[in-house]
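It is worth pausing here to work through a concrete case rather than discussing structure prediction in the abstract. The textbook approach is simple: state the sequence, then state the predicted structure, then interpret. We follow exactly that order.
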Amino acid sequence: MDALDGNAIAGTLAEVFGTEMTTAVVSCGACGRTGPMAEVSVYLDGPGVVVRCRSCSNLLVVIVRRRELACVDLTGLASLTIAG
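Step two, the predicted structure:
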């Protein structure tokens, strides 16, 4: 399973959050690494989108589509800051 960067899910993130998210700053809840969403590790091989910390592999975000609803789990993030 090869990891992509956060740019691979730019469209999905824009649909879910309604704005450009690859420049949003995320902080890992496990190791504290902070950086833009574009730098996370993304896996698309499962039934949904899995986003992990590039530093410690902590699970940051999971996005699963169920019919027309996007279910988003952000529990691995310590913070999410959207520039605006």
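Step three, interpretation. The radius of gyration is 12 Å. Residues 43 and 71 are 16 Å apart (CA to CA).
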